[in-house]
């Protein structure tokens, strides 16, 4: 358009190029102005309304569609348009409020309108008055111009300002500012008068205050108290200029700069309008500011940075002023109207010329009733502007306009051929966007770039291959970064719609398929798995395209961490496309997250194991950006323990050897059934079975089944037996050797209570592992055999005493009798009859083992517990046959039950008398004294029994004394209770002459009476007896009826 405008002006100049032509200099100036002005578009059309006025024009105003022209001779000429004159209506002044785009003709003249030349005049439409300023301020009634009302105090006024909202008029004369208020008719009432430092050149209302342009400065005058606040000095070239904006702000002229301030005079940020010259008048018509300059009229946008929109060249312009639908431009004898070009035409023109920002600003000015039109135009402009910016390298700004246009993401992704999209989804996407490729500036090679390349030297066109590759790489990175920001802005909305669609589908399926069998119902995917997306899910299809494209863009820009974060969250990435891309690019961490978020755990674990193996190898296949460790497999398996325990067990074998502790912790923390883990470990990793069972037992002894406890003890025993066989073969066996393995077995045998000791006893060799045998015999309540092992095989009396203490404390000994010290009596018997116990030990052990074998030969592993219940009875039968079981009580006869027919070899060295005395002295309080004395040899001296009998007798004597005291206390307490009972039974009852029977209501008098237990109810004895008899009779008849 600039080119066309230049061609038109140049053609005009050629026509007038005759040097003798008096307009040649003017045309040269016009051409210079046009060539040096960056005009955008035509915002106003200049139309001549009046020409060849007979008299010089001083002031112009319009009333409706008529022009009121004040001439230098004091007359007022009223002009109407030619189209209005052809209208037969009589009152053309009120036909319309807008000026017509026609030539105006004279309708009538009001001579003598003013005695002196008018300086200005203004139609007060709300008051139907015409205000004129000459030697004073006069008001005429419209439309007949009745006799004026003159404000006498305004004589000599040179400037005024009218506030139509409040009906206030202010004017300045000399160094005074006066404020008047309209009284409702044609008169005005004075309100205030204030003095100012100098003559006022320009003024305007700004809210409740008045902005004054004094000779050398601008100031804000408080209309209430007259306070004057300076703003800043005025310019040196042009006089002060004050213009009010519709928004309430004020434009102040400072030479060729228009400064914007608020109603309080505070400077606004970026409020600087730079004109080409100092303006003499400015008219504000949003969104433009029209300024009258000495040589032309300049139109600028009110949008920062206030660019130049249009320049209109008119000669000898005296003033410009606001009209309803146009700006009135007054020349000496002619009048022009600047009519705004329709917004729609301006928008189209701006869009076609590439001025998209101005077009978008104008779109917002379209009337509300055209909201749909405005939305469509804004969308079209945003799309065109986005393509224009994209072609010129402004990628981020381009994406911002794509976002503002609400265009489908597929339209933007079509600009990125390197992004792979799901074909099935893209084929189903209809083209919803405007055909922007028809515009010449939207081609892949910009016209502006082509012109620059044509005009540039050949040397600049020949660039090196390295430079081209670098520029291409940079552009690709920048474009993809812009795409990432675009997709991230669109993602929340699209993914939200997809999630809502999924929710609606689930609800619909729940109600729609309520009576459909489970086998025929459509399978539902997990919340994150999106391998197969239904074709009718538009929102999810769009979400799949978006997330798939976003992941690719992140990878292409080297943001692998961002891609991992995307896959970790809720996403709709296409598995097939992403898997292929990630495998090609060796993005292992991203691929792992892709499998994980789509519940492809088997594939993920295979990949993770491969990565761990590659990290272990000396020569990895590729340089891994991340160190993969076996612990990662365990961390991956933890959330799967509850949902897929078999998968956890399958892949846990891969890390059992490298991370045994962590793997066992995985089993424990994952609540995987212990029996399942045990059987799995027994098959795949027997060496770790015991470790797992140990940890399980340490966490909760009651939580591990009897079967698993047997398993653990059997494992320990097998290890000890292997160790025993190895040392026996080497002839290095030592019964007193306790390696960690054997200590662990002994600890398990003592600490675990739910295993079957008879099964363990069969596996223990008869000539070794005596302590283990003793523990097992103790579990089977074979205390005599266990103590015999401690004393005669291990030769550890202290162990035997500890065993007795343990049995005494746990109460297992109580089944041998009610006396608490019977276990110690067994120990004493073994000490006193060593030859007999040694002789019969092997026989009893052989009988016990054979009995256990016969009782368990017909039962399997699962029935061991049931069969073992009868084991104690059989053992008792065997011991009863031998005559060595301890009875429940000690008979009164002089011979002890522990004594046998074989005489004790008194004084023989085989009797362990010292040990007996030690037991009696250390455990005197736990041994039954009488029974112990019966077991002792008769020849033993009482002096040796002093450590035993001394505390025992003292304790017995003390107990007797205590019992005697307690008996006396009990007797005293009984006497006290009896005394209290007698007191409670002693009742005093006073019978008076007024006392009556509670049954017959007659006076008691001297009759025999009875008193009820409540001590208040008195009845005749006869009445009481009759009442008792009647109760018995009624009860008997009731029973007979039943």
Description:
It is a single chain. With 1042 residues, this protein is an alpha+beta fold. The protein is built from 36 helices and 30 strands. A four-stranded antiparallel β-sheet has the order 1-28-27-26, with no helix packed on it. A four-stranded antiparallel β-sheet has the order 2-3-4-5. Strand 10 and strand 11 form a beta hairpin. 31% of the residues are buried. The N terminus is likely disordered.
Question: Quick summary of this structure?
Answer:
The chain is an alpha+beta fold. The protein is built from 36 helices and 30 strands.
What structural category arises from helix and sheet content? Answer: alpha+beta
**Average pLDDT value?**
77
- Beginning-to-end CA distance, first to last residue: 123 Å
Shape: elongated
Note the main sheet. Answer: 4 strands, antiparallel
Low-confidence parts: 1-38, 430-466, 514-536, 815-820, 852-909
| Number of helical regions | 36
User: Could you estimate the helical fraction of the residues in percent?
Assistant: 40-55%
Widest sheet, order of strands: 1-28-27-26
Computed over alpha carbons, the radius of gyration is 59 Å
Question: What is the percentage of strand-forming residues?
Answer: 15-25%
Number-wise, the strands total: 30
